[in-house]
Structures are given as C-alpha cells and as structure tokens.
Amino acid sequence: MIKVILCDDHAMLRRGVRDTLAEATDIRVIGEADGYASLRELLRQQRPDVLLLDVDLPGRSGLEILAVLQQEEGPLRTLMVSMYPEDQYALRCLKAGAMGYLNKGGDPAALITAVRTVAQGRKYLPPEVAELLAKHLSAPESAQLHDSLSERELQTLCKIATGKKLAQIAQELMISPKTVSVYRARTLEKLGLSNNAELTVYAIRNQLV
C-alpha cells in the first residue's frame, strides 16, 4: 500500500485529490496538511511513501518547505503540484529535489500514475515537462530574464500581472506589504523594468499569466 500525505491550503482541492486517489486500491491518504506547521506535525507522527506538496502555499511556499524537509527529514519522495503552467515552476521544482511535477488542471488519472511512479523511486515527468527539460538541456544559453527570479519574486510578478495590489499579495503569501515591496523592487531591477504596467506586459509576453 502506498501511503500519501497531502499538503495544500485549499480544503476543496485536497478533497478532490483524495477522492481521485481513492479510486486506486493500492494508494491510501494517511494525512492532510494545510501548510508547513501542520505538515511537520504529521511527519512527526508518520512517514509517507509520497508527499504531495502544493507549490503556492501561504507563509512558507512549497519550494521553501521542500528545501527544509530535505535538510531536516532526509530523502522524502515529493511530488509537487501547482496551478501554474509547467514552464514557470516545473524545472525549479525538479532542481530543488522534487521527484516530479504535476499541474492541478491535468488529467486526474495522471495523478495516480505520478504517485505510483514516485513511490517506486522514479521521477515522474508528464510530456510537457519532459519537453521543457529537453529544451533546457539542449539550449541552456536560451535562459530568459525571469529565470533569475527567486520563487517569491516570480510569485509577486505573476500576482501583480493579474491586477492584485501589494496588500492582497501580502495577505495571500502571509508576509508584510513591506516585504512584497522589496520583492517587487528586486523583480523590477532584475528585469530592467520601471513599473507595474511594464511588469504586466512582460508577464503576458512571456506567457507567465
């Protein structure tokens, strides 16, 4: 039996994932967490074969949590899930040590396949991610400016581009508006841009939103 722990801050999404996995007789969800604190508590009680970890969590993000778990918990087979397009986060997740990446909007059957694959100690790469990886390996010189952004800076860019104010972004990421302003300033500097309008245009042109 493959034991799975879910970590996602949206209860309805966790329920959808749980219901999908329930269709597989060899997979059992043994716990659910809505963020870093509850996940650590679960991991103190039991260890899963696979951790399904959302990228976009309030407070500590999925990638930040993944880094901490790798340092403190040792090897943990982690499948990252996200609503973001593969070209934004898939390679970042794999480089950070995830065993696979899956878009939440994908085929539910792929989730079962991904969990089984990761549980076997193999990486799960849907066709879209495999193609991205192939392009990245064959043409690393084609890196784009936003590849230099940190995860929080990229999140800030995407949220600004969808019209959200700094206060809204701060609330969603569970950080202070001042910290969001710092991320915005760093993003503008790294991309060579001047204001939110230019950030939005950049995000649209690069298909980040």
TrEMBL record:
Location of the HTH luxR-type domain: 142-207
InterPro entries xref list: CheY-like_superfamily, NreC/VraR/RcsB-like_REC, Sig_transdc_resp-reg_C-effctor, Sig_transdc_resp-reg_receiver, Tscrpt_reg_LuxR_C, WalR-like
Domain of life: Bacteria
Organism: Serpentinimonas raichei
Pfam families for this protein: GerE, Response_reg
GO molecular function: DNA binding
4-aspartylphosphate carried by residues: 54
Limits of the Response regulatory domain: 3-119
Stated name of the protein: Response regulator containing a CheY-like receiver domain and an HTH DNA-binding domain
SMART domains: HTH_LUXR, REC
Single GO biological process annotation from the record: phosphorelay signal transduction system
Keyword Transmembrane on entry: no
